[in-house]
Amino acid sequence: MKKFLLLAAVLAMLAAPGAALAEKPVLMMATTTSTDNTGLLDVLGPLFAEQTGIELRWTAVGTGKALELGRNCDVDVLLVHAPAAEKKEVEAGAAVDRTQVMYNDFVLLGPAADPAGVKGMTVAQALKAMADKQAVFVSRGDDSGTHKKELSLWQAAGMDVPDKQAWYVQTGQGMLATIRVAAEKNGYTMADRGTFITYEAESGGTPPVVILVEGDSPLLNQYSAMAVNPAKCPGVKYELAKKFIDWMASPGTQKAIGEYSLMGKPLFVPNAGQ
Amino acid sequence: MDYLLDGLTQAFFLLVTGHAETYSAVWATLVVSTSAIVLCMAFGAPLGFVLGHADFPGRRALRLVVDTMLSFPTVVIGLLVYSFLSRQGPLGGLGLLFTLPGIVIGLVLLGLPVVTAMTASAVENLDRRLKPTLRTLGASRRQELWATLHEARFHMALAAVAAYGRIVSEVGIAMMVGGNIKWHTRTITTAIALETGKGQFAMGVALGLVLLLVAFAINLGVASLRRLAGK
Question: Cα(A16)–Cα(A209) distance, rounded to whole angstroms?
Fold first, then answer.
């Protein structure tokens, strides 16, 4: 009897937050680690709730897993950064209303001493130089948007994507963890600028790895929002997802995205409607 | 080394200043682990008792299954529960993915074999003379069961503590099924994983210490319960 009462109490405890939720509509989003790790969503989430009365909840996973969650109908909306993979989802009918909302860019990072001598090269030249000199390159290796981008850069440089080579390290972890591995191994890596600035801020402004290659056009990192297709997933909250996408592209939110900065450096550039 | 020292001071500040995010994670951890352990005991203890006390065909095979379940990797449990709770899965209609009750399901699967196996062992290892002695003293079936249960109570408490230890420190299930959603399904362990991923090692250490403190408080409670029961 005692046990039963305890059980009932626990179940009541579990139900209580459930009841409280009923008041506010909840939008479930799958996103990439970069939007969460940089703290951007901690600013946008409350702003969205305040202006629309919709509570945004997100799970931050790699873009690959985020797309999979969308395909399984487990989330309502996606905020990801792998344009080619996103277009495939739209073509396959898994997602709709793909809208680009912002970008930042990728940078090639490495030790300040630059043992492979890649500073100032184009991306393709830098990757070739690293492979030739067998300089340690640390890859996310986790099917995230950043990882997909990196793979496309090796291909664009006309090379086979390294895999088992001793100098090619695949962490299977998030961006900041991967930058830290690169720093520990005195190696190179590729990161989005936002995460790098976060890293820079955390290392007190004197990080062990620095930006060596930047500004090359293949390094653009486009983020888009998409709704999970309600025709395929009848359970999803398409109305809320659409509202979120429109809200992300609205002038006010775009301004907020542009103003979000760390150490005085903006992390994302809004570009909805362009 | 600095991380440990920084972590220690941060843990203190997080707890003393009532850091809302930390308390939210502590609360989520307590809710899921308490519910899970209660359910584990409610189902596992009787099952283990039957497994250790009664004789029936297939008992040894069942024992083997339970013992094997002890080494079920938590990420596999997480994956299994995810595929059942996903909207594409058989239980998708319940909407339990990314919720605390969803995590509880996974944690019960994790703790149940521990409770069952340890209870069964405890009952099996009771003094062999207990049953015949009770019989010769003229105990009824019911009195016999009760006396056996009474004899095994400390071991069952031990089973509960062991299962709780696994449940409260679990991260794979909480991450996969819960989704590490801030203010909702972020537990202490998934928060540690997040902070470590962000490179905030000191914060991770701080949260680890908070988890240890929670575990300590609970064990202290169990110990005093045992003392009370012993009197």
Answer: 48
Q: Distance of alpha carbon B118 from its chain centroid, rounded?
A: 13
**Digit-coded pLDDT (tens) for B154-197:** 888 889 989 999 999 999 999 999 999 989 999 999 999 888 87
Q: What is the ipTM of this complex?
A: 0.74
CB contact under 8 A, B87 and A233: yes
Instruction: Select from B86, B104, B198 the Cβ nearest to the Cβ of A37.
Output: B198
Given a contact cutoff of 8 angstroms between Cβ atoms, the answer to whether B170 and B177 are in contact is no
Q: Does the beta carbon of B165 lie under 8 angstroms from any beta carbon of chain A?
A: no
- CB contacts under 8 A, B 114-143 vs A, are none
Tokens 């626990």 map to which residue? A10
Chain A contact for B199, CB < 8 A? yes
Please tell me the pTM assigned to this model.
Answer: 0.79
Beta-carbon separation of A74 and B97 below 8 A:
yes
B26 near A CB under 8 A: no
